[in-house]
Amino acid sequence: MGNKEKVCSVLEREKDWMSIVQVAEKSGLSRQTASKYLWILTADGKAEIRKFAQAQTFRVKESDA
């Protein structure tokens, strides 16, 4: 499983807003690597971001069912 898939798997499993550090810990990746793939998934439309102040949290994007 590649790094992108690891990050996506964590987001799909947790279903709640998660920080970069939380995703990194649960995926076994470094914070920098988790951040890179979170931003890629966001750009691909597979994850969404919520920003407040200096913090960002991410979650899997819910389908438009």
Automatic annotation (TrEMBL):
InterPro entries: WH_DNA-bd_sf (IPR036390). This is Helix-turn-helix type 11 domain-containing protein.
